[in-house]
């Protein structure tokens, strides 16, 4: 498109950037032409190894066989902590900013190392061994980071569950990966509200007989229920534990963590990431995408319950010896100026957040932004969903005063790290485009028949080869990994996203092409929400679709058919919302419930979601042909009674 805006790299930014345009071009070309040579060099540069690897990459995508740096030995916690002690032991590793602006704390690399070693010893005394799974259900506090690193130190595999998920969700995740230990806190705080983390764990554990240990961080000091023998206070146990804990040498392909994510079908999948390739990939991308320099203060506003928190609050930044800010609160508490005040308070240089937050703050007007200085800011980032050009422009002009480049970073839980993004010293920006592939990433666009589309085109986004940070499997179900990602286009990894590539080779992600929706940057499967709704005895059938939502990106629209004899009432609606909150969490609660006497189905009984999406979007002109439906009058009825 000739009318689109282009923002060139600011000259002063390029002058001090690690990589400039020519560097990107040369390194990208090399990363494809000499993949193994390129990655061997990066793995040596970004990661310290106890023993060298035998092979750089073994890859058979069709068979789901992916290995990077196999045979190499390393420890992720050692890389994130120990190796920094000599040179930056007294440097701040984590800046903690509490939900309440009166609370903030700096944690040095030495202090974090001490906490991690003690916690690792506590885990050991509770019987945790290499390969065991540990569930972490924590607020955004330094102890959450310590918990992840303590697992990594002894080779335990962590499964972090976002604090917004319900007891049912915790339970199913604990059971799926057979976690025997849970690390949690008495309560979390978000926007002044207490989140009953320990009570949620207690409830979840009623269905998890194998969990023998719950470590509880005393955070708010609230009264909580206690099970002697099983429960232990985090601080008390650490105080009496040894601070000496050797880092377990792990194979590059040993699992590092499991993170559950929603797909188009079934229950959430345990995405499995491993050790050496993952760390190499997140360290490299953190340094280059955010142009991180020693001494910078870096803030990613995500929660460690999501992959963004894993890769770009914890592992990438700490591997690089960065100062990473951990924020417990929400963007609008106590006021919509909070983000900008925190930036001034801690002199943040690099700020990485989600479009949904930007849109919500944009709505609050320029005032809360303009009341702050933000002079420390050098770079802005965006992640989680497509950023609409209006929000991009506002972020650039008002927040960044036109001087800070924006890196719109496209990636997924499955990809481990950022795959398509500008490099801020190298790439001219187009608002709304994630721009160009990073090193070693070879994207392609496919049509429905499996043909690759050349040049400027729109299609389904695939990746033609693996990269070190790629997921290796679905925990406990390797076949599901193959079926979900590697079957649609044999030999390629299918992302589930639609995408356009323009004449300049820039990529524009258009959103999911499957039944996954993205609500405020939270990924949800429509099938999961439907399963929750039909658990209610009054519900016969439910179909859930996404629709455009001004702040959240997508909203949740549920069509619900009731059992014969049940009447739709406001009270029943509330019961259905409560059911979804109980089964999944508040983030999955439908924005709209439309009572549907019937759902549009083909003669073979398949629900025509395309039609439901059009109704939810209020795009009635594009509903199209309904004559193939078993009962076309169903559509008229739904259109007449839109929610
Ligand atoms: C899905 C992955 C990656 C961390 C957060 C989300 C969408 C993500 C972008 C972006 C357009 C984006 C995609 C992707 N997405 N980043 N910059 N532009 N879309 O991780 O929960 O695994 O979701 O988020 O649809 O497939 P996730």
UniProtKB/TrEMBL annotation:
Protein keywords: Acetylation, ATP-binding, Ligase, Magnesium, Metal-binding, Nucleotide-binding
First-tier enzyme category under EC: ligase
Catalysed reactions listed for this entry: acetate + ATP + CoA = acetyl-CoA + AMP + diphosphate
MF annotations from Gene Ontology: acetate-CoA ligase activity; AMP binding; ATP binding; metal ion binding
Cofactor or coenzyme needed: Mg(2+)
N6-acetyllysine: residues bearing it: 606
A Pfam family: AMP-binding
Stored InterPro entries: Ac_CoA_lig (IPR011904), ACAS_N (IPR032387), AMP-bd_C (IPR025110), AMP-bd_C_sf (IPR045851), AMP-binding_CS (IPR020845), AMP-dep_synth/lig_dom (IPR000873), ANL_N_sf (IPR042099)
PROSITE patterns tied to this protein: AMP_BINDING
Annotated GO CC locations: cytosol
Superkingdom as given in the UniProt entry: Bacteria
Binding positions (ATP): 384-386, 408-413, 497, 512, 523
Record PTM text: Acetylated. Deacetylation by the SIR2-homolog deacetylase activates the enzyme.
Enzyme Commission no: 6.2.1.1
Residue numbers binding Mg(2+): 534, 536, 539
Name by which UniProt lists this protein: Acetyl-coenzyme A synthetase
Source organism of this protein record: Immundisolibacter cernigliae
Taxonomy of the source species: Bacteria, Pseudomonadati, Pseudomonadota, Gammaproteobacteria, Immundisolibacterales
């Amino acid at each position: 498109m000739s009318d689109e805006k282009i923002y060139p790299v600011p000259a002063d930014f390029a002058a001090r950037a690690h990589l400039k345009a020519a560097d990107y071009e040369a390194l990208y070309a090399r990363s494809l032409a000499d993949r193994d040579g390129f990655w061997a060099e990066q793995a040596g540069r970004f990661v310290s190894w106890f023993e060298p690897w035998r092979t750089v990459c073994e890859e058979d995508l069709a068979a789901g066989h992916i290995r990077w740096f196999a045979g190499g030995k390393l420890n992720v916690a050692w890389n994130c902590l120990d190796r920094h002690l000599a040179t930056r032991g007294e440097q701040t590793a984590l800046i903690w900013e509490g939900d309440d602006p009166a609370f903030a704390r700096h944690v040095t690399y030495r202090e974090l190392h001490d906490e991690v070693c003690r916690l690792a010893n506590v885990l050991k005394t509770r019987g945790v061994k290499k390969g065991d799974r540990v569930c972490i259900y924590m607020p955004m506090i330094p102890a959450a980071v310590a918990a992840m690193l303590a697992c990594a130190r002894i080779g335990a595999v962590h499964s972090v569950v976002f604090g917004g998920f319900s007891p049912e969700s915790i339970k199913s995740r604990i059971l799926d990966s057979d976690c025997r230990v849970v690390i949690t806190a008495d309560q979390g705080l978000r926007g002044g509200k207490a989140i009953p983390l320990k009570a949620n764990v207690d409830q979840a554990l009623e269905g998890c007989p194998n969990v023998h240990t719950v470590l509880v961080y005393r955070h708010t000091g609230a009264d909580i229920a206690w099970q002697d023998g099983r429960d232990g206070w985090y601080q008390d146990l650490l105080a009496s534990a040894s601070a000496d804990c050797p880092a377990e040498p792990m194979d590059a392909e040993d699992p590092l963590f499991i993170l559950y994510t929603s797909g188009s079908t079934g229950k959430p999948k345990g995405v499995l990431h491993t050790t050496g390739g993952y760390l190499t990939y997140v360290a490299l991308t953190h340094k280059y995408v955010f142009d991180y320099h020693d001494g910078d203060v870096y803030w990613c506003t995500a929660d460690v319950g999501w992959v963004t928190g894993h890769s770009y609050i914890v592992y990438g930044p700490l591997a690089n010896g960065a100062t990473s800010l951990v924020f417990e609160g929400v963007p609008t508490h106590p006021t919509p100026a909070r983000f900008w005040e925190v930036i001034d308070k801690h002199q943040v240089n690099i700020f990485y957040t989600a479009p949904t937050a930007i849109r919500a703050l944009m709505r609050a007007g320029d005032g809360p932004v303009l009341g702050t200085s933000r002079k420390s800011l050098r770079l802005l980032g965006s992640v989680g969903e497509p950023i609409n050009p209006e929000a991009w422009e506002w972020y650039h002009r008002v927040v960044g005063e036109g001087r800070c480049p924006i890196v719109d970073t496209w990636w997924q839980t499955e990809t481990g790290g950022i795959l398509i993004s500008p490099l801020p010293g190298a790439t001219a920006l187009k608002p709304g485009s994630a721009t160009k592939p990073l090193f070693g990433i070879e994207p392609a666009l496919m049509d429905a028949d499996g043909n690759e589309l050349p040049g400027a085109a729109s299609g389904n986004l695939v990746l033609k080869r693996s990269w070190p940070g790629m997921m290796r499997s679905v925990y406990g179900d390797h076949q599901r990994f193959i079926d979900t990602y590697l079957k649609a286009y044999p030999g390629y990894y299918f992302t589930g996203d639609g995408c356009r590539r323009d004449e300049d080779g820039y990529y524009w992600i258009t959103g999911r092409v499957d039944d996954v929706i993205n609500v405020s940057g939270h990924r949800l499967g429509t099938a999961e929400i439907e399963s929750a709704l039909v658990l209610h005895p009054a519900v016969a059938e439910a179909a859930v679709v996404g629709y455009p939502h001004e702040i959240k990106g997508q909203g949740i629209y549920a069509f619900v058919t009731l059992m014969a004899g049940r009447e739709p009432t406001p009270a029943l609606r509330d019961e259905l919302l409560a059911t979804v909150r109980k089964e999944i969490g508040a983030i999955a609660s439908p924005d709209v419930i439309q009572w549907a006497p019937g759902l549009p189905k083909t003669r073979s009984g398949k629900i025509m979601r395309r039609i439901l999406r059009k109704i939810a979007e209020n795009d009635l002109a594009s509903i199209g042909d309904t004559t193939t439906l078993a009962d076309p009058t169903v559509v008229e009825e739904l259109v007449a009674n839109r929610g």
